[in-house]
TrEMBL record:
It comes from Actinoallomurus iriomotensis. The keyword Oxidoreductase does not apply. The chain crosses the membrane at residues 48-78, 120-141, 161-182, 194-219, 231-254, 266-287. It is a multi-pass membrane protein. This is Ribonuclease. Keywords: Cell membrane, Membrane, Transmembrane, Transmembrane helix. It holds the Pfam family Virul_fac_BrkB. GO terms for cellular component: plasma membrane. It comes from the Bacteria.
């Protein structure tokens, strides 16, 4: 029910119109400059880089089990052969060393699922995936609370339940991405230009990513009054920055004289660690953007509610709002 209400609010025509218009009425370029300046200051004070490194460590331990869980479900439903066919298009959106390492690992896992007893293995595997990957999301939740300067008052059970729920959501999101990659050629693009098909895949995956980030920012933290305008903008900016970062890292690692010459056989592991670290950093920055936009909007609303004081001549002076410091 909460997810249905969330989708209605985010995808409504009024929400789309307000999102295009900006976080709020009168939100100017100067306001964006103020927000970005404060994000830079807060990111330095909160040690976002150090927090992102800690979250990335747990993400490294969680990403392979998560993807194996996705492959297990897809292998049971559609068969191992179909799963192997989809690994190529999915790997195309990742940096080459990252794609190579993950593809090799997942191919081996899918091959192991081709035998008998896949149903029992699926159940056991999914339980292990949810528990293992929830530690990664738990670390991310802790990092988000540090970034937004809020205390997580939920008990241990609620925290772990939230982390497990986010893990399940990530599992469904990745499966949806896999389905999108497989479905695009079936909607009339089989004979179209490859670039068009790839662009459509990326656009569909971007929508999934934004929705996932909105859910993370809204329900991952212990805040029931988060501003939806700020959350949408933070998620959109984070997704855009993540896409640019992934493309830039892919271009860099495409050169065999890049990290491969330095790390040798560990180039894939180094690329995965770098990609996950930068991804976590961008997600945390998105939360910083949410907080600063919300802070500016709250300050502006509070300022509007204060009646102007009369000046010496008896006329009401027009107050001038200043950004929250």
């Amino acid at each position: 029910m909460r997810i249905t209400l969330f989708l209605r609010r985010v995808l409504s025509a009024d929400a789309m119109r307000r999102a295009v218009a900006g976080p709020g009425e009168g939100f100017t370029a100067r306001d964006w400059i103020v927000v970005l300046q404060r994000v830079r200051k807060e990111a330095k004070e909160d040690n976002v880089g150090l927090i992102a490194a800690g979250v990335a460590f747990w993400a490294i331990l969680s990403i392979v089990p998560l993807l194996i869980g996705v492959m297990a479900v897809a292998s049971l439903v559609a068969g191992p052969a179909w799963v192997r066919e989809q690994l190529g298009p999915l790997a195309a959106i990742l940096p080459r060393p990252v794609a190579r390492s993950l593809t090799d690992q997942l191919t081996e896992a899918v091959s192991a699922m081709s035998g008998q007893g896949r149903t029992l293995g699926l159940i056991i595997g999914l339980l292990g995936v949810l528990w293992t990957c929830s530690r990664g999301f738990g670390a991310l939740i802790n990092g988000l609370h540090v970034v937004i300067d809020a205390e997580d008052t939920r008990n241990v059970i609620r925290k772990r339940a939230t982390a497990v729920g986010l893990t399940a959501g990530a599992l469904v999101t990745v499966m949806g991405a896999l389905w999108l990659v497989a479905s695009v050629p079936r909607i009339g693009l089989r004979d179209a230009d490859v670039v068009v098909g790839f662009a459509l895949r990326c656009a569909l995956l971007a929508v999934l990513a934004v929705i996932g980030l909105i859910l993370l920012y809204r329900y991952g933290t212990d805040r029931n009054n988060a501003d939806w305008h700020a959350v949408r903008w933070g998620a959109g900016i984070a997704m855009t920055a993540w896409a640019v970062m992934s493309v830039a890292l892919a271009v860099y690692t495409a050169d065999t004289g890049g990290r491969s010459s330095t790390y040798g056989t560990l180039a894939g592991a180094a690329a995965i660690a770098t990609w996950l670290y930068m991804s976590c950093y961008i997600i945390l920055l998105g939360a910083e953007i949410n907080v600063e936009i919300e802070r500016l909007l709250t300050h502006r609303a509070a300022f509007r509610d204060v009646p102007p004081e009369p000046d010496a001549s008896g006329t009401e002076a027009t107050p001038v709002a200043e950004p929250a410091g």
